[in-house]
Amino acid sequence: MMRIASLLAGLAIFGAAPVHAGELGALRAMDARMAAITQRLALANVALCPKILPLSGMIVQDEGQYAPAFRDAARAELGLSDLPTVTVVVPGSAAARAGVAPGDRIVAIDDRPMARSAGGDASYAVAEAVLAALDAAMASAPADLTVERAGKMLRIGLRGDMACPAKVELVPGKRLAASADGKTVHVSTALAGFAGSDDAVAIIVAHEMAHNILRHADTLDAQGVKRGLLAPFGKNRSAIRATEIEADRFAVFMLARAGYDLDVALDFLKRFGAKTDLGPLNDGTHPGKKERVARAVQAIAEVRALKASGRDLVPAALPLVE
Q1: Alpha carbon of 109 to those of 66, 133, 176: distances in Å?
Q2: Measured between alpha carbons, how far is 54 from 178 in angstroms, rounded to an integer?
Q3: 267-302 b/e with 16+ CB inside 10 Å = b?
Q4: Taking the C-alpha atoms of 70, 71, 77 and 82 in order, what is their torsion angle to the nearest 10 degrees?
Q5: Is the pLDDT of residue 228 over 70?
Q6: Which of 8, 109, 294, 316 is the most exposed place for a label (fewest CB within 10 A)?
Q7: Rounded to the nearest 5 degrees, what angle is found at the Cα of 61, between the Cα atoms of 160 and 95?
């Protein structure tokens, strides 16, 4: 199941000031764009993912995700209520084909009533509960949704598309940052904005998805590798760096399989390196700008050679310790 965290819900939880009229629509557009990129990567790379899950292709929110000061805007601009509500349906997705529409309020899944938000502080509890219920329903059979649309109750059967795990969250932040924790990908709004085009955003998402697909967090944990402040020291540095190199290479194959422009992705890596590379002050857990670009060029050449020979785009495994 694809899960894209609402940018504004994140802002609300972190205590940002109330938004002005019209701003939520722009923020929803950012969520929709990230959802479409994520779905494209998740569907195109099923052959590379050892674990696949049903993907609905929609975003669900409720007014309770927003701090009290945001709720009037959430109701007026997104049509939210205390029921979980569909805010985005990715074109061509399973949800779109089933007839799910933005604004649908999910009343029940497989005849089990959905929880309603109860006011108070901002919380993702209702949205998380409905997404968990939808995941479970799609995993065993088509999910039977009861939705309220324009005052009428409708029944919709939703069978998800099998895809790579695709839990991606667009989160507010001024840092050019992205991360993966084994289950979820986080991309800052600043980094998504800096990237610019979908082809450039896709390399960010693909790199972090690659960490999760390849189970790098589990591998590092099994090796006793420490992250955080201890990351630059001893075996921690070399082990983390090896996973970054593998994720970079794997991401190039993911982009190619999804039909994204590899030259645009390479340009992003150059721009990103120029903006963030600290030269001698780098902690060594990630390749420096020149090495990263050189490795990307090599991976792109490998992909193009495979294409030219008519072979499948499957990357050979790399050792995780250099």
Answers
A1: 23, 7, 38
A2: 25
A3: bbbeebbeeeeeeeeeeebbbebeebbebbeebbeb
A4: 150
A5: yes
A6: 316
A7: 25
Q: How far out from the chain centre does Cα 182 lie?
A: 12
Label residue 131 exposed, middle or buried (CB < 10 Å: 0-12, 13-18, 19+): buried
Q: How far apart are CA 4 and CA 318, in angstroms?
A: 30
Q: What distance in Å separates the CA atoms of residue 201 and residue 193, rounded to the nearest whole number?
A: 9
H helices within the chain, ranges in order?
A: 7-13, 23-44, 71-78, 94-98, 125-140, 189-195, 198-213, 216-222, 234-258, 262-276, 289-308
Query: DSSP secondary structure string, 238-300?
Result: HHHHHHHHHHHHHHHHHHHHHT--HHHHHHHHHHHHHHH--GGG--SSS--HHHHHHHHHHHH
HSE (CB half, 13 Å, CA atoms) of 279?
A: 1
pLDDT at 13: 36
Are residues 278 and 232 in contact, defined by beta-carbon separation less than 8 angstroms?
no
- The residue whose two tokens read 């039909």 is 259
Query: For residue range 155-207, what is the model confidence (pLDDT) as tens digits?
Result: 999 999 999 988 888 887 789 999 999 888 999 889 999 999 999 999 999 99
> Token pair for residue 305?
């050679």
Q: Is 55 exposed, middle or buried (0-12, 13-18, 19+ CB in 10 A)?
A: buried
Alpha-carbon distance 51 to 49, whole Å?
5
CA 207, distance to chain mean position in Å, is: 11
Instruction: Give Cα 271 distance to the centre of its chain.
Output: 22
The CA-CA-CA angle for residues 162, 113, 78, to 5°, reads 75
Predicted pLDDT at 287: 87
Contacts of 28 (CB under 8 A, 6+ apart): 6, 78, 87, 88
Q: Which two tokens stand for residue 221?
A: 């944990």
